[in-house]
Amino acid sequence: MPSPSDTVVIEANGGSLHPGFVDSHCHPFEYGWLKRSVNLLGVANTTGMRLRVLGGIQRVKPGEWVSGMGWDQEIFPGRSMPSRTDIDDISQENPVVLSRVCGHIGLLNSRAIEVLGFENRAGEEYGRDERGVLTGIVRERALEEVYGKIPKSAERSAADLQSVEAEAARLGLTTLHCIVSPGGYREELDALAALGTSGSLSLAYRVYVPPEALGHIESTGTWKRLAGPRLRINGVKIYADGSLGARTAALREPYSDDPSNRGILRYTDQGLVDLVEVIDAKGMQVVVHAIGDRAVEQATDALARVAGANNPRRHRIEHASLLPRDLRSKMARHGIRAAVQPLFITSDSWAIGRLGEERVHDLYPLKSMLADGIVASGSSDSPVESMNPILAMWAAMTRGGADSTEILTFAEALSIYTTNGRSNGFDSAEGLSEGSPANLTLLDSDAGVMHPALFRKAGVLATLVDGVAVHSYGTT
Ligand SMILES: [Zn+2]
């Protein structure tokens, strides 16, 4: 017990103190990389895209990779996919990769196709026009392969992480469930280890590696080394499907706006079961990215085989976006958890087109998930959405003004960003109790009595991790 003289008293002046906010699914390395890449968020046509890419090319030397992220054909005229011919004339000397806002589709220029040796690649992951010529569009694993081949360094990854961490602290986040990239896990894990060893990490990290990294973390001892209270490898992230925006999320029934398409499953049913069993047997947590109902079904079935009735390893489904009642029941029956992204609700205004009037009712059913007993934790999937947990809680409480039975109360919205986030990352459940680590977020208003629509204006006065202020208003 600290003596009274050791106690620092901070007057909250009408603010409110909360357990530290947890972002239970984000890609801080990708976000850091995005912050120094060409930002294509909000570009309304290929002309806008060309101008920003040109700016990016002017900042690097001939031959260096130029990367960008954030385009969305849904806001382009005619909603047509861009093609390499849209950027080839301005980028003859530099390989270019521009990923869509979802991160599941990318556009390569001709120089990149040449450097990568993709000219003769075949399959649905490589877009071709009606004459059979590559358009430069690549999907899913093909895009991951591209990122795997772009030169990286642990120093650069460390700088990327630190820039994101400072922003996350300002937003009131104390813990990040950090997904490391299939294409850059060596450098990213080295960066985490170096920052952790030198005591340079401000926030707590629960790390999820791709299956490709399993051999690496075992043979190098990284798994054992990153096992502390501040920095810990929790488990493995598997992708079962793609995204709704890219129409690569795997659906039980075809897309309403593309009746020949049900999306892409990355594994066979048995293939996913085999992988889940291998990881579970190592004592690790498995988190499966599944967005379409077919993928959620496949993931639930695979996780249920090792979860038993109460899922002691806290295996979880990331996104679980299209979640009809039968799948919610099955997840709940086996104690399978979920990491959800409330900001998807307000962003995916096009979802009704993809899914139609009926199915869209089962999209992001946050209230029903909690009511069914699924431990759902809040997250951003940054850089897909802003890391701001206040905005995300606001989205969960308002659903963008839509009249919905799935609207959460403040207590529920807060719980997905605190209690459930801690639980889904194997952190003790206590929040504001004596003896628990002082991971705290101080807001400038009493959020519990605010109108939900105003909550998005709440500000973060201070963020404490293990009792240390990693952000205080006006100083960081
Ligand atoms: Zn993600």
Structure description:
The chain is α/β, with parallel strands linked by helices. The protein is built from 17 helices and 18 strands. Strands 2-9-10-11-12-13-14-15 form an 8-stranded parallel sheet. The chain has a 6-stranded mixed sheet with strand order 3-4-5-6-8-7, sandwiched between helices. A hairpin with a 4-residue loop joins strand 5 (96-100) and strand 6. The mean pLDDT is 93. Zinc ion is lined by residues 25, 27, 179, 381.
Q: What is the mean pLDDT?
A: 93
Helical run tally: 17
Q: What would you call the shape?
A: globular
- In which range does the helix fraction lie? 25-40%
What structural category do the secondary elements indicate?
alpha/beta
Head-to-tail CA distance between termini = 30 Å
Unreliable runs, pLDDT <50, ≥5 residues?
none
Hetero groups: zinc ion
Rg is 22 Å
Strand order of the largest sheet: 2-9-10-11-12-13-14-15
Major sheet: 8 strands, parallel
DSSP strand tally: 18
List the helices and strands and how they pair.
Elements: E1 16-19, E2 21-26, H1 28-35, E3 38-39, H2 46-58, E4 66-71, E5 96-100, E6 105-108, H3 110-116, E7 126-128, E8 134-139, H4 140-149, H5 154-170, E9 173-179, H6 185-197, E10 204-209, H7 214-219, H8 222-225, E11 231-239, H9 269-281, E12 285-290, H10 293-307, E13 316-319, H11 325-333, E14 337-340, H12 342-347, H13 351-359, H14 366-371, E15 376-378, H15 389-398, H16 410-417, H17 419-424, E16 440-443, E17 460-465, E18 468-472
Parallel strand pairs: 2-9, 3-4, 4-5, 9-10, 10-11, 11-12, 12-13, 13-14, 14-15
Antiparallel strand pairs: 1-16, 5-6, 6-8, 7-8, 16-17, 17-18
Bound molecules: zinc ion (ZN).
Residues 25, 27, 179, 381 line the site of zinc ion.
